[in-house]
Design brief:
7% of the residues lie in helices and 2% in strands. The chain contains 1 helix and 2 strands, in the order H-E-E.
Length: 181
């Protein structure tokens, strides 16, 4: 089966109302701008897949493999990605608001300019990850490995750091006169 035929088959399957795509091997598939919201992608292999600009909101991606996948500009808001393999994933400008990324591997991941507000990255491996100008407000990084991660310009507000401390370096300050009714 050609990659184009496989993409068409996945699209038809999804459009017909089927959301269960778990366990499939979709390695290297071009699914750019695909609409897969609410899909069951547990244990699916999407290594080196092109999912740029894809809608992956609310997916169940428990133990999904997205190593070296292109997720630039993709929406993964409220996605469950626990124990996922996201090594060397390209998530530049991706939306991961309130995503569950506990225990996942983001080693060498590009999360530059990504929106991770409210995401749970407890015990995630972010070794060598690029978080340049990433939004980490309200993010939980408890026990995460940030060894050699690039945090230049990252935004922190009520962010739980790996050691359990709270970082508030980028919280908006409301002027006293404006906070009164």
């Amino acid at each position: 089966m050609t990659p184009a035929t496989l993409r068409e088959l996945v699209n038809r399957y999804y459009q017909a109302g089927a959301r269960d795509l778990h366990g499939l091997n979709l390695q290297g598939l071009n699914m750019a701008a695909a609409h897969l919201a609410n899909a069951d992608l547990r244990r699916t292999n999407l290594t080196r897949a092109n999912l740029a600009q894809a809608d992956l909101t609310h997916i169940d991606g428990y133990q999904i493999t997205l190593a070296q996948a292109d997720l630039r500009g993709a929406s993964l808001a409220n996605a469950v990605l626990r124990e996922a393999d996201l090594r060397k994933v390209h998530c530049h400008r991706a939306t991961l608001i309130n995503a569950d990324l506990r225990d996942c591997c983001l080693d060498h991941a590009d999360l530059s300019h990504a929106n991770l507000e409210g995401a749970n990255l407890t015990k995630a491996d972010l070794t060598h990850a690029n978080l340049y100008w990433a939004n980490l407000r309200y993010t939980n990084l408890t026990g995460a490995n940030l060894t050699k991660a690039n945090l230049t310009g990252a935004k922190f507000c009520q962010t739980v750091m790996p050691d359990g401390t709270i970082r508030n370096s980028e919280c908006a300050v409301v002027p006293q006169a404006m906070s009164q009714p």
